[in-house]
Amino acid sequence: MEYTLKDYKSSTKPSWCPGCGDFAVLAALLTTMTDLQLDPDDTAIVSGIGCSSRFPFFTSTYGFHSIHGRALPVAIGLSAARPDINVITLGGDGDGFSIGGNHFIHASRKNPDITYIVMDNEIYALTKGQNSPTSHDNVITKVNPYQAVEERVNPIMMALSFETSFVARGFSGDIAQLKSIIRQAMDHKGFSFVHVLSPCVQYNDKITFDSIKEHIKPIADDHDVTDRMAGMKLVFEPGYYYTGVIYKQERPTLQEKLDEVQSKAHPGHPEGQQVEELIQQFM
User: Fold this and answer.
1) Which pLDDT value is given to residue 269?
2) Cα-based angle 73, 76, 77 (whole degrees, multiple of 5)
3) How many C-beta atoms lie closer than 10 Å to residue 251's C-beta?
4) CA distance 117 to 99
5) Local confidence band at 207 (pLDDT 50, 70, 90 cut-offs)
6) What is the rounded CA–CA span in Å between residue 203 and residue 124?
7) Which residues are paired to 247 by β-bridges?
């Protein structure tokens, strides 16, 4: 059976504001799933809370709309229990880098075979416009009427410092490149992080499609994606948003390590221990 784009769409129409960048991310993901011919019955989309986290409602795959900041642990548990299915995780900057920031660290450590797409609009849009962890200090909101009092986080630098095994950045204003990035992320074996610049047209007038385009710079073809320090240099270069694959590392996935542990725990394995021996350690 050959799947078409409509096989991945649900009957629920996206409820984002007209012009929201998340429409392009949805289109890029659905097209990529079609290109890969993923079986909708063997695919699960997990999200947290926020505008971008409504994704499970707009697709015909299995979906799990989790609680705020907890999309990654749900996705990791699902992937560990069902390593045979495709697990895609989606969220926003508030959900992923504030209350969910700690899970980002440990997902990078575990290296589960899941794709994590974060749509960053630098604002809490679902709750009508409060500063998020990625908001610039010139964004004045209801909770910061004079100035922002917290330093903004850098999601790409976070991912590189955690040694996330696949790190990339895309822009919802360039759907062709975004499709290519998502395809590479889903092809990667391990934890793939895709940071998407996705402007909010309703509650953040500082970060717009035009203002982002002025600072977009595609990563050069000769960039060494295996060099983490080279990736960090791109992030630290002032005035630019580099887009493309920034870093990629092949290393054992969480499932491969779990399989190894399970093999060693078998009574017939040379390194295996009998239940009685384990109990004696606690006597």
Assistant:
1) 67
2) 85
3) 12
4) 16
5) confident
6) 8
7) 167
pLDDT of residue 140: 82
Q: How far apart are CA 210 and CA 216, in angstroms?
A: 10
Q: Which amino acid is at 91?
A: G
Residue 172: what residue type?
S
Q: How many CA atoms lie within 13 A of 145 on its CB side?
A: 1
Task: Count the Cβ atoms, other than its own, within 10 Å of residue 169.
Answer: 27
Task: Return d(Cα 8, Cα 153) in angstroms, integer.
Answer: 34
Q: Burial code of 104-140, b = ≥16 C-beta within 10 A, e = fewer? A: beebbebbbbbbbbbbbbbbbbbeebbbbbbbeeebe
**What are the domain boundaries of the chain?**
5-251, 252-283
Q: How far is CA 131 from CA 141, 152, 157, in A?
A: 7, 10, 20
Residue 145 has pLDDT above 90, yes or no: no
Q: For 5-251, CATH number?
A: 3.40.50.970
